Amino acid sequence: MSLYRISIYLKLFSFIISGAYSETNFPGMDVFTSSASLSMGGAGYLKSSPLSSNINPSIYGEDVFSASIIKYPADITSQNIGISFLFKNNTFGKFSINNISYGIFEGYDENLISTGTYSASDTKISASYGKGILRLPIKLGIESSFYLSNYGDYTFNIFSFSAGFSFRAEEQKFKVGMSIHNLAKSSGDLVVDLHPRLVMSGSKKLKHLPLNLFLDLTSENSSVLTVFIGGELDINKNLQFRLGSSNRKFNQNIKKGIFSSVIGASGFGFGYKKKDILINYSIYMFGTGALSQSLEINIAT
């Protein structure tokens, strides 16, 4: 199987699930790994999660173990586990392992002779560290990630770095943050385009309604601006509802119908909490009409 054919497959994978990713020809860089993020259409960089790849590294919520599975179109599957923990002196950390499997394919050589089947997958190992600044309502955080990608006989690696800070106004129940992601370097059999992503985020817990609102602005190559907006509603002490979307609905719109055009690049989901266990179920809808589904379990430790 040639490098050219591998490159074609990479671009095909990116196209299939392009609504979930940033502007890069490497599809595993920003795949959804958290059910909560998926249910809000990609919003929620200031929502704590040990799983999410779309998060400001300065954000910490509680000590929790999480696991999720996400089913994408074309039988693409993402499986994820993660844990977050609090250290001494107002410091905290997170560790996660994410795997996305693209399936099993038939391989061919340059003469189009079958070379048998092969599997394609990306695995990411991430660790983050953050700290509150003295008694100030400011937190700083960094995250490093190592990607191992296998496409038949070919492999390549990516080392990625992210950093961010957040400010919380406790009385107003308001947070703002800024982070930079995908500062990366690749090596191996293939060369991929890796674009740093700058994110400006805000969240607000409403005073007279049990609703958290999230707004995130992301930019890559100083030209592509994506706007995410989402919300998390506490229906009661056990049940949550999430909803969100982004302006990616315009890029994904293939004019298949009014319904697909309106709800494209949007997600929704529910969370059920009982004591120390939270279970999330989410659906993300592409502008093409295709769906992704996610199931996640969180256990407070």
List keywords for this structure.
14-stranded antiparallel barrel, mainly beta, Porin, 14 strands
Instruction: Note the overall shape.
Output: globular
Bin the helical content: under 10%
Uncertain stretches: 15-24
Number of helices: 4
Strand order of the biggest β-sheet: 1-2-3-4-5-6-7-8-9-10-11-12-13-14
Please give the number of β-strands: 14
Q: What's the helix-strand series?
A: HHEEEEEEEEEEEHHEEE
CATH C-level: Mainly Beta
Beta-strand content bin: over 45%
Major β-sheet profile: 14 strands, antiparallel, barrel
Instruction: Specify the structural class.
Output: mainly beta
CATH architecture annotation name:
Beta Barrel
CATH H-level homologous superfamily name: monomeric porin ompg
The fold-level CATH name is Porin
How many domains would you count in the coordinates? 1
What value does the average pLDDT take? 85
The value of Rg in angstroms is: 19 Å
Distance between the termini: 46 Å
Describe the structure.
By secondary structure, the chain is mainly beta. It has one domain: Porin (Beta Barrel), CATH 2.40.160.40. The protein is 10% helix and 55% strand. The protein contains 4 helices and 14 strands. The protein has helices at residues 3-16, 35-39, 248-252, 258-263, and strands spanning 64-71, 77-86, 91-108, 114-132, 138-151, 154-169, 174-188, 197-205, 211-220, 224-234, 239-246, 266-274, 277-285, 291-300. A 14-stranded antiparallel barrel has the order 1-2-3-4-5-6-7-8-9-10-11-12-13-14. A hairpin with a 2-residue loop joins strand 12 (266-274) and strand 13 (277-285). The longest helix has 14 residues, at 3-16. It is globular and about 70 Å long. The relative contact order is 0.19. Residues 15-24 have low confidence and may be disordered.
